[in-house]
Amino acid sequence: MAELLGTVQDWEVFVKLINDHGIIALASYNIKEAGHGKLVPEKAMAIIENGLMQSVVRNSWLTERWKEVNTILNDAGIKHILLKGMALEYTIYGSKGLRQMTDNDILIKKEEAVCAWELLQNKGFKIGLLKSSLHRKIILETAQHLPALYKDGYALEIHTRLFDETKTDRKLYDGIFKDAPEIKIDNDKTFILPKGIHIKYLLKHFNRHLIAGECQIRTYTDIKLLDPENTMEFPGQFIPAPDQRYKTHFKRVIYRENIMVIPPRFRFRFIVGDLFPSVEWMNKRYRCSGIKTILYYPHRMGKLLWLV
Questions:
Q1: How many domains does the chain have?
Q2: Does the residue 295 lie in any domain?
Q3: Are strands 154-159 and 182-185 parallel, antiparallel or unpaired?
Q4: Is the Cβ–Cβ distance between 280 and 230 less than 8 Å?
Q5: Which of 32, 101, 181, 241 is the most buried (most CB within 10 A)?
């Protein structure tokens, strides 16, 4: 590590990059554990250490908010499985604030998901502004998770599937819930994905973000820690810029991908709702109101060319 730190020429850029890649907390821990803190300029090291402290505080806060969700769902007899950040933080990362998170993701059986989603809304959680009323009746079909829930700055996503297992292999889908290992977070019992399924899911998650133009070392690290023998490589073009979703190429590709995973009978409804969202959604999206909002609708028709 000392040799690698010695190659850093611009510490301001280095700090920004590890933060953008979601590994500033992990970098801080590793540098300090290796005893190489003095090799980093004082100002840069202070920022890196602060990144770890912020992650510890944020993860603790997210955990306490999740406990409320856990209680509500358990009282209703609805089983859920932790995904991604929190599942990894309390297993392979050792509960040290090293796995940076911004929200919580959970998996619930498709037939129970809407019930859980509505139950949480009855307990004070709110949903973000839906793009179109046409989407409300097909929310289980248009994405792998329901519209996010929010409460006092906390965000929760309820996923209904990991792959396409509900269509192709119901036995596999049910087995995920049956075989989910139990863990404890403080004194609260919960569940995570079986290791093999977890690795497969994270690989899919990584590749999907790659297709969309977003690729962080954080997700790559998750996979390598779970599966050290995995031979995957991190694409070098994303090292200096992990978020490239603004590029038109990526926008086109992910839009087509999103459409194709929707069952054919629901695609027309989804596309119409996407091309002609509610006025309220348009006001928020384009930060305007009145006649200016109407003028943006023709602009959205360009998405049809992406499909072609």
A1: 1
A2: no
A3: unpaired
A4: no
A5: 101
